[in-house]
From TrEMBL:
InterPro entries associated with the record: PC_trans
Pathway assigned to this chain's UniProt record: Phospholipid metabolism; CDP-diacylglycerol biosynthesis; CDP-diacylglycerol from sn-glycerol 3-phosphate: step 3/3; Lipid metabolism
Keywords for this protein: Cell membrane, Lipid biosynthesis, Lipid metabolism, Membrane, Nucleotidyltransferase, Phospholipid biosynthesis, Phospholipid metabolism, Transferase, Transmembrane, Transmembrane helix
GO molecular function: phosphatidate cytidylyltransferase activity
Subcellular localization, as worded in the UniProt entry: Cell membrane
GO biological process: CDP-diacylglycerol biosynthetic process
Gene Ontology CC annotation, any one: plasma membrane
Top-level taxon of origin: Bacteria
Family affiliation: Belongs to the CDS family.
Topology with respect to the bilayer: Multi-pass membrane protein
EC annotation from Swiss-Prot or TrEMBL: 2.7.7.41
Descriptive protein name: Phosphatidate cytidylyltransferase
């Protein structure tokens, strides 16, 4: 499992970083693809339990939210989200649909698309490309460290009723590893932080950024684990070796990306 996780990260990281270097719209296209697949996986899990989310409205709404984000930033994101919500409610009203299914349709967008759109917002901030790279790599570092140390020395279960394999020891390693990684990255001479802010401020901001990512990344993982347990499925899909589906791979990024955006906006 560890080998498959590392291989998946080594394949996925260069692809995402390459899209970042090719420009905002190429990166946005890749994130849209990830969000659409992950949202479809979420709806598919619901369908297994005989719920009936509006997949067309959900997938179309996901694309609309990203287009709104690209066109108008935060305002465009919110406008698109509101319009999609109205479409879903009209669908529920005039088709005698279930308000539960309408709510679950919106849940997919609020849970997956809305947070992932913050990666595009982060891209647009000053030095935002660096921020996106750091948060993505840091979540992978956290995941690999948590899994490795959990397997090696983990004894105490973190949340046994939600995820039987997660340990407190692994979680601590998953917090420390990205903290050290990003703290060190902020000191690299080819990045602008030391030159602009000084070494002390740069490392403090880097450590804070890494600590936040390390804390919230497992939260995203636990949220998805709770959803899968309730819906009685093992994985959201079977696309990525060592992880399952796209939602299994990016569940931590869903939460970490949002926090990273606001940290970068107000602190960095």
């Amino acid at each position: 499992m560890l080998k498959e996780r590392v291989i998946s990260a080594l394949v996925g990281a260069p692809l995402i970083i390459a899209s970042l270097l090719l420009g905002k719209y190429v990166f946005a296209l890749l994130i849209v693809i990830i969000a659409v697949i992950a949202t479809d996986e979420f709806y598919s899990m619901l369908i297994l339990r005989e719920f009936k989310p509006n997949i067309v409205a959900g997938i179309g709404g996901s694309i609309a939210i990203f287009l709104g984000t690209l066109a108008g930033g935060v305002s465009g994101l919110l406008l698109a989200l509101v319009l999609v919500m109205l479409v879903v409610l009209v669908w529920q009203t005039f088709t005698e649909g279930s308000i539960v299914n309408a709510g679950l349709t919106m849940t997919g967008l609020i849970y997956i698309t809305l947070p992932l759109s913050h990666l595009i917002l982060l891209y647009g901030l000053a030095q935002g490309v660096i921020g996106v790279i750091l948060v993505l790599v840091a979540t992978w570092v956290s995941d690999i460290a948590a899994y490795s140390f959990g397997r090696a020395i983990g004894k105490r279960k973190l949340a046994p009723t939600i995820s039987a394999k997660k340990t407190i020891e692994g979680t601590i390693a998953g917090i420390i590893a990205p903290t050290i990684f990003i703290g060190t990255a902020f000191l690299l001479p080819w990045l602008p932080f030391v030159a602009e802010q000084g070494a002390v401020v740069a490392i403090l901001k880097g450590l804070g950024f890494g600590l936040i990512v390390g804390v919230v990344a497992p939260v995203g993982d636990l949220i998805e684990s709770r959803i899968k347990r309730e819906l009685r499925v093992k994985d959201s899909g079977a696309t990525i070796p060592g992880h399952g589906g796209f939602l299994d791979r990016f569940d931590s990024v869903v939460v970490a990306g949002v926090i990273a955006y606001y940290y970068w906006l107000f602190v960095v």
